[in-house]
Amino acid sequence: MLERDVLVVGAGPAGLAASIEAAKAGADVLLVDLNMKPGGQLFKQIHKFFGSSAHRSGTRGFDIGKMLLDEAEKAGVEIWLQSTVIGAFPGNLIAIEKGIDGGEKEVITLKSKKVIIATGASENVVRFKGWTTPGVMGAGAAQTMINVNHVKPGNKIVMVGSGNVGLIVSYQLMQAGCDVVALIEAAPKIGGYAVHAAKIRRAGVPIYTKHTVVEAIPGEDGTVCKVVIAEVDDKFQPIPGTEKEIEADTVTIGAGLKPATDMVKLEKCRLTFNGPFGGFIPLHNDKMETSKKGVYVAGDATGVEEANTALEEGRIAGISAVESLGLIEPKEAEKMRIEIWKRLEALRMGPFGERRQIEKNNILAEYEEKVVAAVEMD
Amino acid sequence: MALINTGYLEYEELSQIQKLPSDERYAKGPVAVIECVQEIPCNPCEAACRFGAIHIGDPITNLPTCSHDKCTGCGVCVSKCPGLAIFIVNKAYSENTATVAFPYEYMPTPEKGMEVTAVNRKGEEVCDAKVVNVMNPAAFDHTPVVTVEIPKEYADEVRSIKRL
Prior knowledge:
The complex is a heterodimer.
Chain A: E1 2-9, H1 13-24, E2 29-32, H2 61-75, E3 78-80, E4 84-89, E5 93-99, E6 105-117, E7 121-123, E8 136-138, H3 139-147, E9 156-160, H4 164-175, E10 179-185, H5 194-202, E11 207-209, E12 211-218, E13 224-231, E14 244-247, E15 250-253, E16 257-259, H6 262-266, E17 271-274, E18 279-282, E19 295-297, H7 307-324, H8 330-347, H9 350-377
Helix pairs in contact in A: 1-2, 1-7, 3-4, 4-5, 7-8
Chain B: H1 3-6, H2 11-17, H3 23-28, E1 31-34, H4 44-48, E2 54-55, E3 65-66, H5 76-80, E4 86-90, E5 97-103, E6 115-119, E7 125-135, E8 145-151, E9 160-161
Antiparallel strand pairs in B: 1-4, 2-3, 4-5, 5-8, 6-7, 6-9, 7-8
């Protein structure tokens, strides 16, 4: 049977960082990802990242992706692409549907001493009349089309959602040569960073706060040709009589993300519901270990944040996994973790970050209360 | 704050949040105007300035402050700010005109000598403008810094150009 020290699931920033840390310490690391290329969302991110200049901020996302892939390769991380975890069994056994040449799949059972889950998040949808019309898509899908596949999703875009995804993808759609004819936000204020909003305002994009999309109207060819928006009341219900018709061929929806928890459910890790973090997430401790011993989590799967926090959490998970394998001294591991938690605290400050710091502390406390206490009772 | 509702700030609102250059400093020539107004974890502008004019310090969510007397208006920070929120304003360009330099990441990149239309923070057309400089070295990593000449009275208003 195939055996590895550490299996990492998901090759985005969190999974890559975890793999690099674990492999650098001398562990045999297998990293699996269901996509055709590693990097998660990094290779779609053509903008310069925020964060600390000590940690590559000001560098474009896809360049950070390249650096991480280089590091992973140098550290000896083995990567399986187009591969999906399909089962977890007692005795640290994991079934993986491995992608092999020619598009074929092969089911392989792996015995892995430690498992790190870094499965990321998926886009939320918004339902409205005509939401299945061709031309309606997730903002992330539109971003993949322009930045990875170099195909415009359309020419006249209505963006729904003013979080950082909605704002950044609007900007990038214009860089790709599309016009963003409206950005709609149901809340009374813009959700993302003001600087992202400011750059699309300068480019002439009207931002409609307290508005929602009511209907996408198909044209003769069956694809979107008009979009109806309307003002909403305090309960986010459209106010009759305020409808406005906008000529557009594409509706992109940036209505937030929710953590991808299929794998943590498969491992029967204890979950908790957390609204600000996007839904159900696994409880974990300060080593990023879940309620299941030897199973770690990192990145958006533990609550939706951003690439910098995902990288740092990935590092903690990787370090903790190899510590428990005896490859790093506990003292050394603890020292590194303290440093990383300090950096995470700096990333979770200010009006956009402090809520996430509070929620993260709640998760750690809930782990102590429910997981640690339960073990002690046994 | 109007910004979080509308996506832009009027100059007066901006001046309440960020320390802007004094009239005396503006009279001396090009200077950085930092329009970063929210405490977000970001500090590449601080390391970008080789004159030590920009300060953020610890924690990195601090708003950047610019020592306008140390700033030479070189424009490197304009290309390094991930939020594209720094501009170089030169109110001493000529008797009647000023220049504004801004980051411009759309295609095609404007060329020196081009006649363009200047826009304000809301994307509204303000006046005709002439491209007088385009800096786009490798170190700027594909964020060209474009300088346009405009009538002096619009120096606090113009922040970009209509896409070409």
